[in-house]
């Protein structure tokens, strides 16, 4: 039985575990080919902070574009299991980049994470000549080992990002993640953490407080979709979604929450039919700013991207 502090590394696949036929190929690879234990074994001596043991578990092996509700539930339950263990200092999750920000925000809202839960990733496969995954994994372990670390964060390219603001902003470069005008929480420099902002506060949401029997027992998730407002938008998409039984709609609105008149009219009809509506902005930086003299018709997802607003609406409908 392990009797010293432990960092748990949960693998879910992604590019960090991907392989290609040639070391110079950073695009034509297959994601989720190597186990999380293999990734850890490849780090070599010195990667693990002194006095900390490692425990690896393969929760899934997928390309993160295919992330789904069942895996979110399984991942959250494994996190909760380990966070309750006194000797576990924190958790690292290896994850694909495509939906990493969504998984991070989901976990932030369902885990009472007084300990760190660190998602990390790679933009190049494990077989690349200059793979970025090993350094990202080492940096994530350094964050877990920090005595004051807490909450759900993302580590990539030497930066630490909070779950609320982080977004993938580039399809190719190694520093593919950004937190917009909020900026990163901190940086990892030669294994040392330099923080610029406070650690995230664990969620006070209903799921994080009552935690996992209810979430683990969910048989069916609400259907929530994202629709976008743009020049020439019509009612057709909303009408089709309502006819198909959608239960919630998040609007990726233009600017400061504005919605094309045809789309807005369709959303009014959807609300009358019992569909929940939440408004986010399609702008990648900043957040919606309500005007005192103009109360929005629908709730605004302040400071959330449309995909993260969708997660909030999912959890609200579950509650």
Automatic annotation (TrEMBL):
Stored InterPro entries: AsnASE_II, Asp/glu_Ase-like_sf, Asparaginase/glutaminase-like, Asparaginase/glutaminase_AS1, Asparaginase/glutaminase_AS2, Asparaginase_C, L-asparaginase_C, L-asparaginase_N
Source domain of life: Bacteria
GO MF: asparaginase activity
Domain Asparaginase/glutaminase C-terminal: 223-316
Gene3D superfamilies xref list: 3.40.50.40, L-asparaginase, N-terminal domain
Positions annotated to bind substrate: 64, 97-98
Biological process terms in GO annotation: asparagine metabolic process
Keywords attached to this entry: Hydrolase
Domain L-asparaginase N-terminal: 8-198
Catalytic residues (UniProt): 15, 97
Signal peptide per UniProt: none
SUPFAM superfamilies tied to this protein: Glutaminase/Asparaginase (SSF53774)
UniProt similarity note: Belongs to the asparaginase 1 family.
Name of this protein: L-asparaginase
């Amino acid at each position: 039985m392990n009797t010293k502090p432990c960092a748990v590394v949960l693998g879910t696949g992604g590019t960090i575990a991907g392989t290609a036929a040639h070391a110079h190929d950073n695009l034509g690879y297959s994601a989720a080919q190597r186990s999380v234990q293999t990734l850890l074994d490849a780090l070599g001596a010195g990667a693990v902070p002194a006095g900390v043991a490692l425990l690896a578990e393969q929760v899934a092996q997928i390309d993160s574009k295919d992330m789904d509700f069942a895996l979110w539930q399984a991942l959250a339950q494994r996190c909760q299991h380990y966070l309750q263990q006194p000797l576990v200092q924190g958790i690292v999750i290896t994850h694909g980049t495509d939906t990493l920000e969504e998984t991070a925000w989901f976990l932030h809202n369902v885990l009472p994470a007084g300990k760190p839960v660190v998602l990390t990733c790679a933009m190049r496969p494990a077989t690349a000549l200059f793979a970025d995954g090993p350094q990202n994994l080492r940096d994530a372990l350094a964050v877990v080992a920090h005595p004051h670390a807490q909450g759900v964060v993302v580590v990539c390219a030497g930066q630490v990002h909070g779950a609320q603001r982080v977004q993938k902003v580039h399809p190719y470069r190694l520093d593919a993640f950004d937190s917009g005008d909020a900026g990163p929480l901190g940086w990892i420099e030669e294994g040392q953490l330099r923080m610029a902002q406070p650690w995230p506060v664990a969620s006070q949401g209903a799921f994080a407080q009552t935690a996992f029997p209810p979430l683990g027992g969910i048989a069916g998730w609400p259907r929530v979709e994202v629709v976008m407002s743009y020049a020439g938008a019509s009612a057709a998409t909303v009408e089709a979604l309502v006819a198909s039984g959608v239960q919630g709609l998040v609007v990726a609105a233009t600017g400061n929450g504005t919605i094309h008149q045809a789309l807005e009219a369709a959303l009014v009809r959807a609300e009358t039919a019992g569909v929940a509506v939440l408004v986010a902005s399609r702008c990648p930086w900043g957040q919606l700013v309500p005007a005192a003299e103009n109360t929005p018709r629908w709730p605004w997802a302040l400071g959330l991207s449309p995909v993260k607003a969708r997660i909030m609406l999912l959890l609200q409908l579950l509650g």
